Amino acid sequence: MSDNSLNNLPGGFKGMSHDMGSDQTAFKGVQWGKVMMWIFLLSDTFIFSCFLISYMKGRTSTVVDWPNTSEVFSLHVGGVPVPLLLIAIMTFVLITSSGTMALAVKYGYEKNRKMCGWLILATAIGGLTFVGMQIFEWSKLIHEGVRPWENPFGAKQFGSFFFMITGFHGTHVSIGVIFLFIYARKVFRGDFDNGKRGFFTTMKSDYVAIEILGLYWHFVDLVWVFIFAFFYLW
Amino acid sequence: MSDEYNQKNVPLEAQSSDTISGTSGTPSKDIDYVRPAELPEQDLYHGHSFITKWIFCQDAKIIGVQYFLTAVFTGIVGLVLSWLMRLQLGYPDLVPFITAEHYYQFVTMHGMIMVVYFLTALFLGGFGNYLIPLMVGARDMVFPYVNMVSFWMFFIAVCVLMASFFVPGGPTGAGWTLYPPQAILPGTPGSNMGIILMLVSLSLFVIGFTMGGLNYIITILQARTRGMTLMRMPLTIWGIFTATALAMLAFPALLVSCIMMTLDKMLETSFFMPTIVQAGEVLDYGGGSPVLFQHLFWFFGHPEVYIVALPAFGIVSDLISVHARKNIFGYRMMVWAIVGIGGLSFFVWAHHMYVSGMNPWFGFFFATTTLIIAVPTALKVYNWIITLFRANIRMNTVMLFCLGFIVTFVNGGITGIFLGNVAVDIPLSDTYFVIAHFHMVMGIAPLMVIMGAVYHWFPLVTGRMLSEKLGKWHFWFTFLGAYSIYFPMHYLGFIGVPRRYFEMYDSPYVASATGLNEFITLAALIVGFSQLIFIYNIVSSLSIGKPAGKNPWKANSLEWLTPEVPPAHGNWGEKLPVIHRWPYDFNVPGAKEDYITQTTPPSEVISAEVEKT
Lengths: 234, 613
What we know:
Distance between the termini of chain A: 47 Å
Oligomer: heterodimer
Strand content of chain A: under 5%
Structural class of chain B: mainly alpha
Number of strands of chain A: 2
């Protein structure tokens, strides 16, 4: 669908009522997959909201004090505890990978197969680095005696919520990384240019798929910002 | 045809609704004009082998039937469990193997099966899959492969649920609400493998349902045929659509509470577990909040009620309209009522928790929102009744079930107003009044719609009619029987018989209830067995039923207008249908026949005074 025809639609609220009142599609010129990803992400938002609200409830109602997060999460560099160091690097890596993802989408639409593929690979490696650092942080905490069922620094819910929520987010990142590698391969092979059919779905696909994957990746990134704020800054 | 989809140049310019509908365009314009196709033809996978055609099938219609049969199978298990419960309540100690533990397990599994695995799966998975692509004029769901995976996830979830009957300790007996801490502590039946399998099964159900739900929503939003505006969709689709949207936002809370409780059970975290002393021993748990679970559960649980009810509202509106030969009264109001009920349903969850202990102002707030829901709901009931008023009613089985639905729903709805008020709820809470209320409003009422819908759409699915004679017997047994079960339960509740009690022993105040309990048990057995009439009717009509032919009910909506009956894979043959009107043009003044199908162009019914839609 050319951009030209989309420009002829009315804008603003009038456009919204026009689109909703029209036949065939409610979101004009938006591919099925993209709508699906948006609605899936809305649903996923509710999952993470439930997790984070439960966390807030759990944290505010424990009888034992919550551990001092800037101490628990600090890294010792040359014997000096530096709070937020690891997490700052993790956040930086993840947000950078969102940047490379956005560039990959741009090059994808420009049909620049090579750049697109390399940028997706870069995103995947950023995601892998993030997961690696998360594993490091988990093993550090586990080494110090923090478990889902106990916590030497204070309320035991700290360990429970921390491992559960970062674990759930880490699973999202890992799934994203797997798909990024698959899509990088698809891009390099040219599946989106020559309309090769999917192995499972038997459907053709095009560069919109990169944007849909990008939506997911940015979402995972955005959720991390909230987890970061609620766990490390509170 | 020049206005078929054209990849290079798709005119998407703004058009007023006049030119979309074509009914009142300027005289120079073609009155049959419908905007050209925006989207290319859907690419479909056609199965070749038995396995890809019937088992791992990507055709939404087959998937719908698969969902339907699986859900009905679990529903029959739930029905048998309810018999066992009733036998114990009516005739204590009659059946030797029903111990208190088993009784709680039956209560739990009956509740969970009926609400989640039977009604939700049947309405959204069954009717949703079958009807959505047909009614909006699509060739199939937008992601057929994901749709297939959705069914198989549901199937695995059912298998895991059934497996819990066969593990040591049996299924969980925590009550269908699975309240912690008791759900996962020893002393509750099935507190080991039973509860774990239940939580795993629910999580699988949510994952599977999310896949299906995305399909339903996007098919409705983005894959309608030419001329099919949102406000020309049958109310069935509006009901299923809104219910699916609710499910997409409510099931996350269930998934989260399942994950957290699984961790509480398996890793001894304390999300929901306070400090507990059991048999003089302090357990390792501590610091968690059981009420948090209740909030999460009911944030899912209340929308769940409407996930079941809204498709029923939608379907019954269509059935009433077709069999009363009259347009549904206040179509737009009906749509907005469905959407309004759906929206409100997210703000009422704590009315299930009036006795859990909360700030009185909270109770005030939730009582208010709960009673506000009565407004759109009552509006729908009035509209159904006004639709029937002075209509040309066909008094067939489908219509009987619709009337049965209205009566049952009004009954259950009015008791809901009782229970929505905090002050009235507190004495009635946890009595048989509650059981009567929710079985009337979300058990029997949707079931009436399901049965009516089966009588209505069976000719479409199989090409044969069900027997009317058997159908009427089935209706009267079911309707009168169900009333004999649940109507006396209101009285039991008023005299204070508590729910979930295994036996009343010699409590003097319930002595008067003994006879009533026996009566209810007998009625439950009869109603259950009378479903054999239904099953016999379905099985025998498959081979000896009267051939239905095309559009046997003379309905307007698209599902009856396919080139083949039953519809083939891809639904529409060569060309997608083009829609010119809503599906409710019955008995239009000036029209030759008493119905004008959605695909009839205005030029063919030039003298008919149709509604402008």
